[in-house]
Each structure stands twice: as C-alpha cells, then as structure tokens.
C-alpha cells in the first residue's frame, strides 16, 4: 500500500460509521533496518488530527480503512523519534546503494508482515534528469526500488523540496493546511512554507498560532516576507508585525509597497484590545448611488470572509479609509429582497451606531451580541469610516492564545495511545 494513495482514504468503524480521513502515516525510521509503520494520522470531525495505531486497524481496502472502533480522540502530537511519511519522507533525497547517484522519494510503500507489523518495503523514487545547454531540466525517470537499495532515508540534514507534499494537500482549506504545517517539525514546516505561493502562504499564516507565524516569517528572505505581509489582511499583518522586534518590523514595513504599508502602520498605532486594533481597513465600502446589483457583485469577492460579506458600508467619497462621512450599512439579506437596479442609498440602515477606534474589546463584543451583528463600523471623531471589526476577529481575541491546540474532548473518551 503506497502512502500517497492512502492519504485521504475514509476510516470506518466496524459498524460502517465514518470516523475520519487518513492524513498521514507515522513511521519509525532507523539508521539500520527497514522503517516500521506504527499508526495513521486521522482527521476526525472538528479538524482534530488523532493517532490511530495500526494494531487497531483490521483492514485496509480500496478506498477505505476499517478500525476496531476504539480511537484516542486526543490531538496527535508527533514524538521526537517518529516521522510522518507524507509530511517528511516525500521529496527526501536518498542515495542508491549501487553508487549510481541520488534520487528523490516520490512515494513510500508499506506491507503487513506475518507477525502483524507494517514495514516500509519499497520506495517510488525519481532520478534527476540531466539538463541540456539552453533547455530546462526535465522530470527524471521514476522507478520502484526495495528499501534495501537506498541509504540516507533517516538523514534529515539535506535540503528538501515540498512539491509532492503540497500536491497531497492542494485541496485543503487554509485552516486545514495550517494544521498540517503546525504538526511538522520546525525545519520541514519552513521548507513547506517557502514552497507555497505568496497568497496561499498569507492565508495559511493567518490561521497559525503566533509562534509559528513568527518562526516562518523570520525564516523567509526579507523581500519575500514583505510580499507575504502585503498579501495578508492588514489587521492580521499588523498583529504579526507587532510580535516582531521593532527593528525587524520597521525593516519589513520599509520593504512593503507604500499603500499596503500605510494601512498596516495605522493599525499598529492602536492598542491590541481596542476596536482600532481589531479592525480591518478593507471592508466593502461603496457610495450611496451604487446599484444593488453592483453591490452584490462586490460582496461575492472570494477574499472576503462571510462576516465582512454580510454587509456593505456606505460613505461619502473618498471610499478609501479613512473615508468621507459614514452614512450607514446595507445588509446582504436586504439587498437580496430589493430590485437589483435600485441604489443602495435607498435601503441604508442608519440605526447601527458606529464605534470609536479606542472602544475596548468588551464594548465591541457587547455591541455585536446585542444587535446580532457580524461586523461593526469603526469611525473617527469626524464620523469618517476607519474600518470594520468582524466577529471572527473578536473571537480570536476572546479565546485563549492556545485555543487552536486546546483539546476539548472529555477525558472519559480517551483510551490511551498504543
């Protein structure tokens, strides 16, 4: 069974109920002898990744894994002597015993032995094709070799690509890919982050714990780090820069495009737990003469969170923050009920009271809860719109710092890791 094909397979209990999906295989790689597979990393509902020992797997068939039904629901934490087959072995460079050169691991095969153990028995590897003058290097030949035919699988010092790993996870949402990166070792996490394009990396960084964010950003080249910060939401970029030493943050701001850096600098001027520190400077802002049809097109933007897509903020020109005088908001549901050719100025809700930038976190939270809103306008003393605070930003600050790693499964459901 090749692990790249196993990844994504559905795990069922003996009654046929779905437990989760396989995301990786945990193996023990030794300097001598074949590596042994000891368990599966399974993603269960709630995006939690748990460890399923292979001793509790009764069958691995086409498209499904059958377990005994006894699963430890505690979040998987990789131990120092464990290796993730998909996350860490794919793209690793090894040497052929016959001395014919180095190859790249493309897949790993595991096979059950008579004693019940699952051993790594074969590797799918790719030779690097020679480059010709004036031509691009072509993809090399792929072949299957026995585990005894290679050396260096246990070595982690060589630089390692991430093409195959990312191919396995290309359909994951940013939050789910962030979970994958969080579970990787520090070096491998940075290798994978470097391989992501700027927009994808920006989305993933916004979902990672602050320690991981800082480690990745500091591991990038300065110009690349500045490009990634530009691709992030201004409030998230400001939060991340606020975790860096002042000198480094100033250096990165200096490398960013002036217009992008301007919004981030403004946000850095506010205290963290205030409306100004929580807000984004890029909600949907339109003039009152805009048609409902045009406004609906704006809220369809893929980069908008559901909270920010729930309403349009209506102001006088200019429409860039800080805007002209704030008029009110138009709710998405109201726009869906009105003729598309009407202007949004005719359906403005002016009853929602905006909040000042220095409003504390609890005031923002209370206002959102009282009026059942997903976002609130933030204005200055002259009633100019500065930005908007969304409910997801408030939740991030209300939850404990380690909320992404907190295990909320009742203790009695845990059966111990085998």
TrEMBL record:
InterPro entries, alphabetized: CBS_dom, CBS_dom_sf, Mg_transptr_MgtE_intracell_dom, MgtE_N_sf, MgtE_transporter, PRC_barrel-like_sf, SH3_actinomycetes
CC annotations in GO: membrane
Domain CBS per the UniProt entry, residue ranges: 348-406
CDD domains found in the cross-reference section: CBS_pair_Mg_transporter
UniProt keyword Transmembrane helix present: no
Keywords from the UniProt entry: CBS domain
Organism annotation: Cellulomonas composti
Protein name, UniProt field: Magnesium transporter
Secretion signal span: none
Entry keyword annotation includes S-adenosyl-L-methionine: no
């Amino acid at each position: 069974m090749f692990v790249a094909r196993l990844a994504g397979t559905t795990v069922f209990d003996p009654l046929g109920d779905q437990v989760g999906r396989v995301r990786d295989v945990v193996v023990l790689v030794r300097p001598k002898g074949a590596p042994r597979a000891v368990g599966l990393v399974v993603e269960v509902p709630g995006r939690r990744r748990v460890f399923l020992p292979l001793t509790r797997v009764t069958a691995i068939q086409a498209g499904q894994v059958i377990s005994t039904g006894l699963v430890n629901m505690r979040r998987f934490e990789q131990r120092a002597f464990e290796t993730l087959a998909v996350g860490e072995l794919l793209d690793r460079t090894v040497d052929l015993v016959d001395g014919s050169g180095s190859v790249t691991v493309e897949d790993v095969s595991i096979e059950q032995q008579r004693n019940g153990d699952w051993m790594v028995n074969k590797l799918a590897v790719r030779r690097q094709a020679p480059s010709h003058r004036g031509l691009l290097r072509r993809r090399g030949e792929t072949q299957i070799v026995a585990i005894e035919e290679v050396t260096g699988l246990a070595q982690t010092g060589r630089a390692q690509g991430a093409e195959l790993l990312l191919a396995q996870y290309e359909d994951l949402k940013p939050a789910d890919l962030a979970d994958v990166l969080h579970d990787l070792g520090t070096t491998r996490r940075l290798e994978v982050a470097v391989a992501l394009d700027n927009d994808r990396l920006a989305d993933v960084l916004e979902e990672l714990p602050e320690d991981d964010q800082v480690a990745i950003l500091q591991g990038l080249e300065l110009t690349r780090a500045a490009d990634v910060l530009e691709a992030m939401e201004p409030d998230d970029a400001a939060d991340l820069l606020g975790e860096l030493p002042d000198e480094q943050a100033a250096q990165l701001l200096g490398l960013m495009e002036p217009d992008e850096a301007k919004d981030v600098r403004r946000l850095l001027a506010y205290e963290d737990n205030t409306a100004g520190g929580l807000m984004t400077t890029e909600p949907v802002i339109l003039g009152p003469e805009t048609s409902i049809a045009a406004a609906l097109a704006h809220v369809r933007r893929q980069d908008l969170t559901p909270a920010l897509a729930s309403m349009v903020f209506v102001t006088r020109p200019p429409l860039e923050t800080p805007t002209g005088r704030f008029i009110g908001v138009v709710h998405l549901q109201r726009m869906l009920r009105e003729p598309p050719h009407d202007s949004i100025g005719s359906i403005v809700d002016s009853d929602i009271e905006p909040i000042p930038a220095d409003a504390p976190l609890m005031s923002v939270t209370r206002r959102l809860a009282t009026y059942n809103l997903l976002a609130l306008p933030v204005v200055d003393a002259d009633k100019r719109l500065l930005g908007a605070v969304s409910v997801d930003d408030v939740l991030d600050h209300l939850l404990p710092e380690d909320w992404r790693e907190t295990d909320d499964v009742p203790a009695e459901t845990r059966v111990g890791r085998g």
